[in-house]
Amino acid sequence: MFLISGPCVIEDESIMMKTAEAIKKVSENLKIATIFKSSFQKDNRSSVDYYMGPGLENGLKTLERIKREFGFPLLTDIHYPEQVKPVAEVVDILQIPAYLVMQTTLVVEAAKTGAIINLKHGQFLAPENMIKPVQKIESTGNKKILLTERGYTFGYNDLVVDPRSFYHMRASGYPVVFDITHSIRRYGIPSSNPSGGARKYLNTLAFSAVASGIDGLFIEAHPCPKEALCDAASQLDVSQLETFLRPLIELHTVEVKYRNK
């Protein structure tokens, strides 16, 4: 099992370096392969007044420094086809946001780079229909694909995680990741509001997903979540990351042994 972690959106460089250093220690202590994630742009914020990130150029500079100093593979979102090429020159995994997973031009352009593509499961798609964007990527000859579950919204403000989605997405033959912290977000409530995320469900959802046989965990982490500029109500305090992960890694070991009997 591997880990994808980092602040939701790129913030002040000191915060980013502090977070990367903490995640590096967790990765080494737990011997878990780790990918650093943060977004240079969050183009789906619910208000134009909310922080959207530093932008492409400055964001990639920060990610490049993290990669250089800590040795992490990198993952970040892309929103437009013109972002694909410059991002692929720095980042190892191109992430297609959930809202954009059916955008053919974006998905195909990303796939053509030959990079690993992480498809976030659209909140509006049945899990078995995730095979459609998978096939768009495969049409380019690229078969380096991850599928990430992050809950369903049904058009309302709460997200629901259906464990059957792990079964259906695993049927694609590609690794399946569970985005825990995005799955507890409550739409319609600013992420700076404590009620904008339901952290009480973190353990229940995480244990359920690992027991279902996922391959990776996606956990956004921040040194001081309540002061985070995005998803403040749902990010995990990076100081709690190791404690949170340890039993999940143990459970994953048991699940793999059971599956391989």
From TrEMBL:
Residues 2-252 form the DAHP synthetase I/KDSA domain. It is found in: Cytoplasm. Its main location: cytoplasm. One of its GO terms (cellular component) is cytoplasm. One of its GO terms (molecular function) is 3-deoxy-8-phosphooctulonate synthase activity. It catalyses: D-arabinose 5-phosphate + phosphoenolpyruvate + H2O = 3-deoxy-alpha-D-manno-2-octulosonate-8-phosphate + phosphate. InterPro entries: Aldolase_TIM, DAHP1/KDSA, KDO8P_synthase. Its EC number is 2.5.1.55. It comes from the Eukaryota. The keyword Repeat does not apply. Keywords: Cytoplasm, Transferase. Belongs to the KdsA family. This is 3-deoxy-8-phosphooctulonate synthase. It comes from Elysia marginata.
